[in-house]
Design a protein that fits this description.
With 256 residues, the protein is of the alpha/beta class. The protein has helices at 44-51, 74-79, 97-103, 113-117, 121-140, 156-168, 186-203, 214-220, 238-242, 245-250; strands spanning 4-15, 18-29, 33-37, 59-64, 67-68, 82-84, 174-178, 206-210, 223-228, 231-236. It has a domain at 4-81 and 171-250: 3-Layer(aba) Sandwich (Rossmann fold).
């Protein structure tokens, strides 16, 4: 077994001759929280899309728990323990909170299409199991009181938590959060920081975060990568990043 849950070696992606990500390398160990920061257009979300295989890398490799998954499809990668959220909440407004979380477990259903069509006993057993696991996830995250509510009727901060709960329902080894603090006020951001710490403690996983909110990144991350125009311009601990001249110039708009 690899000492790294997730590892990339010089992954790159070009769009129409423009380099969105250029030779990005990283290593995440079990239990770590790492962050990727940078201005808009720096390639952060493209990295997430490469890791979750929405895009295929043009060059480089991606390993998940020691297995080369560079050429794997999204479903295989998800089943191997990688789960993610997106910049904008993608909850199903026609479903209640519990059903939204159950969606995160659908790929684990152990029955065939024919069994599902005829509603055979194994289908009913699996549906009960999926519902029980979804309820347990909501309980651990203290979201049970919202399980019958429609997402559109909930505060935006709670909607964000429900989306994270859906990503956690499949019990991943690594959770990738794409700007989880987007749209939150300062008080909600600090509540989210505690929420993510609780996730790490209760689910015992590794977390990779893209975020513009420096208070969240600096309070949570063990290690940070800084992207600018597709390139990694710095990496290190929060303390090292805060005083790095290249970061101050590119991300905070200060002169080197």
């Amino acid at each position: 077994m690899s000492e790294y849950i997730l590892k990339t070696e010089e992954i790159s992606k070009n769009f129409g001759g423009v380099s969105a990500v250029d030779k990005f390398s990283m290593k995440i160990s079990e239990g770590e929280i790492q962050g990727i920061i940078g201005p808009n257009g720096a390639g952060k979300t493209t990295i997430f899309n490469l890791l979750s295989h929405i895009y295929c890398p043009d060059t480089g490799t991606v390993e998940l728990n020691g297995v080369d998954v560079t050429a794997k499809d999204q479903i295989t990668i998800a089943s191997m323990g990688l789960s993610r959220t997106f910049q904008n909440t993608r909850l199903f407004t026609g479903l209640n909170v519990l059903d939204n979380v159950k969606v995160g477990l659908d790929h684990n259903g152990k029955y065939s299409i024919i069994e599902a069509f005829f509603k055979l006993p194994r289908v009913r057993r699996e549906e009960k199991r999926i519902e029980a696991e979804a309820k347990k996830c909501l309980e651990v995250l203290e979201l049970s009181k919202y399980e019958k509510a429609r997402p559109s009727n909930l505060p935006y901060g709670i909607q964000r938590r429900v989306e994270i709960a859906r990503a956690l329902a499949s019990n991943p080894k690594i959770l990738m959060l794409d700007e989880p603090a987007a749209g939150l006020n300062p008080e909600e951001v600090f509540e989210l920081i505690d929420f993510i710490r609780d996730i790490k403690k209760n689910f015992k996983l590794s977390i990779l975060i893209i975020e513009h909110r420096m208070d969240l990144i600096m309070n949570l991350c063990d290690y940070i990568y800084v992207q600018d125009f597709g390139h990694t311009i710095a990496e290190g601990t929060p303390e090292e990043i805060q005083c790095n001249p290249a970061v101050l110039a590119a991300y905070l708009g200060e002169e080197e």
